[in-house]
């Protein structure tokens, strides 16, 4: 089992680990429910859910503030690197901003051009 210890004030999961260790070595009997496998499983399920929700909130916050940052910049032209080629898109990295994203291609019915994906290389060619 891997765990790390930080300030228990900030991390409820660490408090639970501290309490589990105290119960396991017999120095604390205040939390007997921690020895109940079903209650402990429910507690862990709740901790994992809360952790996942915190991650989603953090990602949403980053996306929101990134959008605010670029909102008033207008059109931006920066160097980007292609990380991965797909059949209908490329994944690019813009180092200056630390952004990675997918650029999807849409074939227009009114043009004679089409995208040809080569799975062996992989590459996309406009013909």
Topology:
Layout: H1 12-24, H2 37-71, E1 81-85, E2 89-94, E3 99-104, E4 115-118, E5 123-126
Antiparallel strand pairs: 1-2, 2-3, 4-5
What are the salient characteristics of this protein?
127 residues, alpha+beta, 2 domains, three-stranded antiparallel beta sheet, two-stranded antiparallel sheet, 2 helices, 5 strands
Distance between the termini: 54 Å
Strand content: 15-25%
Number of strands: 5
Largest sheet: 3 strands, antiparallel
Query: Shape from CA axes?
Result: elongated
| Helix-residue proportion | 25-40%
Q: What is the count of distinct domains? A: 2
The radius of gyration over CA amounts to 25 Å
User: What structural category characterises the helix and strand content?
Assistant: alpha+beta
Whole-number mean pLDDT: 84
Number of helices: 2
GO biological process, one term: rRNA catabolic process
GO molecular function: 3'-5'-RNA exonuclease activity; endonuclease activity; RNA binding
GO cellular component, one term: cytoplasmic exosome (RNase complex)
Pfam family, one: RNB
């Amino acid at each position: 089992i891997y765990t790390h210890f930080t300030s228990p004030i900030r991390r409820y999961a660490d408090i639970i680990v501290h309490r589990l260790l105290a119960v396991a070595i017999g120095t604390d009997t205040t939390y007997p429910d921690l020895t109940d496998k079903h209650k402990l499983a429910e507690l862990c399920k709740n901790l994992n859910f809360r952790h996942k929700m915190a991650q989603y909130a953090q990602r949403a916050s980053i996306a929101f503030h990134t959008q605010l940052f670029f909102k008033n910049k207008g059109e931006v032209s920066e160097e980007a690197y292609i990380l991965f080629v797909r059949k209908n898109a490329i994944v690019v990295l813009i180092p200056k901003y630390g952004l990675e994203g997918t650029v999807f291609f849409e074939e227009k019915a009114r043009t004679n051009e089409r995208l040809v994906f080569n799975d062996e290389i992989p590459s996309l060619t406009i013909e």
